[in-house]
Amino acid sequence: MQPLASSLQPLASIRPVNRIVTEEATERLSDYCYELPPELIANRPSLHREGARMLVLHRKSGQIEHRLFKDLPDYLTPHDLLVLNDSKVIPARLYDSSGRIEVLLIQQRDDTHWVAMVKPGRKMRVGSVIFLGDAEVTVLEIFSDGTRLLEFNHPIDLERWGTMPIPPYFKRPADAIDRERYQTVFARDPGSVAAPTAGLHFTQEILEKLPHVFLTLHVGPGTFLPVKSDNVSEHQMHHERYEIKEGSAEQINKVEAQQGRIIAVGTTTTRVLESQPPGKLSAVLGSTDIFIRPPYQFQKVDALLTNFHLPASTLLMLVSAMAGREKILAAYEEAVREQYRFFSYGDCMLIL
């Protein structure tokens, strides 16, 4: 396995950026719930990447259109720019030799040290030793959030021993199809433990026809950890590392100067762009724990292509900030009535 370029950067090179929402967000977690029949959860990918349906929500009017993902170019002008996350999902889920202990590697410290989520935790106390693949692994430390610092006796070959970290609501083990489909066709920088799923719909052929640039955010467990307090303002997002390269920053600045639209592909891309200071973008290697929820005012992103998100999730809160909570929930109700497929392998939504 190649080194995880961004994950191995020294911490001193990471510039944290926090944006404070100046207006108080008063919504309760229960305000972001909706009913979803279990059969609408897509636990397998569609036959073709570009085969997704696309619900188009016009946020000013609340108008909804039912289209296909392949119709996306109909909504773009020559002055618009798609921004996509090119992070690559690593096969970060492993099981010990007994098959009873599950380990999800979430951050690489160096060749032989990883921060990981484990279950069951009672079997992974400080000093515990297990075997993952052909490596002997020792628990060195337990952090306050329950994650562990693990030491491997030699670098682990994740391509050989790891499995893709597909979401638990799939209720099945990862397989060979997930190796291909739980990964965007443009993924190139290894480091994510969950896919930037809005990008899963693109093929190389479609992408080549659309104006686009890339940035990188390595998706961490904070993306899918549940909000535990009904007062959403008490939720703390985890830091996730990102990079904007000079060429992408220049292209985004050019489009903004020409008053074109910046269309974020996915919530991860949105969080990177909205973490930047006002003014022109610059090349940057940083990290963000920005929590976007109503009544957040977007500064960089003009439109959003995204999948349908879990009830009471921070991702649902982000899209609610983009279009308004009531309009989003109404759109989700419509999607349920129209039998859209939900979540990571599901259909998509274009918010204009």
Question: How many extended strands?
Answer: 18
Main sheet: which strands, in order across? Answer: 1-16-14-13-4-15-17-18-2-3
Low-confidence stretches: 1-25
Count of individual helical segments: 7
Textual characterization of the structure:
This protein has 352 residues and is α/β, with parallel strands linked by helices. The protein folds into 2 domains: 11-89 and 166-351, QueA-like (3-Layer(aba) Sandwich), CATH 3.40.1780; 93-161, Thrombin, subunit H (Beta Barrel), CATH 2.40.10.240. It is 16% helix and 26% strand. It has 7 helices and 18 strands. The protein has helices at residues 158-161, 176-181, 204-208, 246-257, 267-274, 314-323, 325-337, and strands spanning 15-17, 53-57, 64-68, 81-85, 87-89, 93-95, 102-110, 113-119, 129-132, 135-142, 148-152, 189-192, 212-217, 240-244, 262-265, 284-288, 303-307, 348-351. It has a 10-stranded mixed β-sheet, covered by helices on one side. Strands 6-7-8-11-10-9 form a 6-stranded antiparallel β-sheet, with no helix packed on it. Strands 5-12 form a two-stranded parallel ribbon. Helix 6 (314-323) crosses helix 7.
